[in-house]
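forwarding from the other thread:

> can someone predict this with adenosine-5'-diphosphate?

sure thing
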Amino acid sequence: MRTAYSVETVRTAERALMARLPEGALMQRAAAGLAVACAELLGRVYGSRIVLLVGSGDNGGDALYAGARLARRGAGVAAVLLAPERTHAGGLAAFRRAGGRTVDPADGEETVLRADLVVDGIVGIGGTGGLRPDAERLAGFAAEARVPVVAVDLPSGVEADTGEVRGAAVRADLTVTFGTHKPALLIDPAREYAGSVRLVDIGLGDVLPEEPGLEALQHVDVAALLPVPGAESDKYRRGVVGIAAGSARYPGAAVLAVAGALRGGAGAVRYVGPAADAVIARFPEVLVSDQGPKHAGRVQAWVVGPGAGDDASVVGEVVSADVPVLIDADGLRLADRDAVRARTAPTLMTPHAGEAAALLGVAREEVEGARLASARELAARYGATVLLKGSTTLIADAAGGAVRVNSTGTGWLATAGSGDVLSGLAGSLLAAGLSALDAGSVAAYLHGLAGRLASDGAPVGAHDVAEAVVRAWRDVRDQ
Ligand SMILES: NC(=O)C1=CN([C@@H]2O[C@H](COP(=O)(O)OP(=O)(O)OC[C@H]3O[C@@H](n4cnc5c(N)ncnc54)[C@H](O)[C@@H]3O)[C@@H](O)[C@H]2O)[C@@H](O)CC1
Ligand SMILES: Nc1ncnc2c1ncn2[C@@H]1O[C@H](COP(=O)(O)OP(=O)(O)O)[C@@H](O)[C@H]1O
Ligand SMILES: [K+]
């Protein structure tokens, strides 16, 4: 499991750890890790030209101590000081002792454009708002220079706790972060600014609380959650998932949700709705009914909404069922809010940003800029688990606790119908007995991976993604 903690938690942990260690020990650990990462990226340190962008806090201090280490290995290191009189004193002294030279921001452009590597030590977890104008100017030179940029702890200018990017921010190729990931390194849009991320152990593990703010499942975690049939299993014990989806106008959504459900581990898939002929023609193994959800026979979980059009009565019937229910797409618009809140069995809602915005009564951009807060808010309002789709998908439980984050996907998944596949897949995992949080996060993980496998850099259709779920499942199982 990859975990991330909020700034406040990181600071508390750092204080606890610092109290046990000699002064400056943490920063030395951070700087040592940072210098190693820079050296690896450069390949050859001796003779290389490194430019440090140094802000006025400890983030700049990390950069200066790392710069000193690199200067001692024969690199030519220059530091552009944003606020010379407020620069980290110990770091600056060490840097100068090692032969580093300082540069006035006025000469920053020329220096940065001649660099082989730029180290962004402008601001770390102490930053708020986008970069200030003088810092933005320097960041602009780094982008212009088209040389590798290594961010210290975080790409400067992003919001550490939320992943929002409210103004100018550094775009890094590599971010070397200390002690733990910060939420911004796992959540878009900030995640994109970080490039690849390397975590340097500074000993925080022992002092961080057990429950993180965010967690991202890895192959091994997903493998442990996948339902596997045993000797006593039969199709009913494996779970039956009901799909109430599709309409005369959108029959394809039913086919795609069923395609996802058949790959999600349930023992049987029941389909209810007007697209039964299309479903059965494509998937003869599906049990179909046109009697409505109440009379369709027992299921262990329902999926309602994909391509449902305007049929609110089917949504109402499913929402009143006393089994886990996944509500997606049109279902999110049609479901009675009080009825959703009144449910006692688990509910999983799977909006994209536009649907989440409609549910919250805000503009889509507001959700896109504050995805974490939006997912938490929706989960609390509806008493449901909320899976907010996007390039990083977030899964938040109503009870609070760590929010799951998934980034296995690819932009090629932004294709019509891929969300229908995801809802069928997640519903099937719910029917197989996973909690709403696990079903949502395992489905997002497999779906993202399936998108990558199916696409391999080329356009794909949603049905390709559904077919590739089997390969994603094997990939996870065989890790
Ligand atoms: N606290 C610790 O024990 C450790 C901290 N470390 C480093 O220290 C950093 C935190 O240091 P600080 O608390 O000093 O804070 P930062 O260095 O992250 O930022 C504070 C400084 O940045 C300026 N600033 C804030 N917002 C800005 C903006 N939008 N544009 C430009 N400048 C801005 C502020 O004026 C302030 O001087 C971490 O990110 C990490 O790099 C590491 O050395 C590991 C140990
Ligand atoms: N840029 C992206 N990167 C990765 N995954 C994405 C991206 N855009 C969308 N997705 C994923 O693709 C799926 C699209 O679902 P949705 O928006 O409901 O589409 P539809 O309604 O057409 O099925 C979601 O799983 C979402 O997380
Ligand atoms: K930084």
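The chain has two domains: 2-215, 219-477. thats all i got for now
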